[in-house]
Amino acid sequence: MADKLNILTALLYAAGDEGIASEKVESLLEINHDDVEPLLNQFDSDVFRIKRYGTKIFLELKPVYNPYIEALVIQQTERKLTQASLETLAIIAYNQPVSRSDIEMMRGVNSDGPVRTLIERGLVTVETAEARSQQLYTTDYFLQLFGLTSLDELPEDSTSDTKEEMDLFFQSLNNKGE
Question: Which region is the signal sequence (predicted)?
Answer without folding.
Answer: none
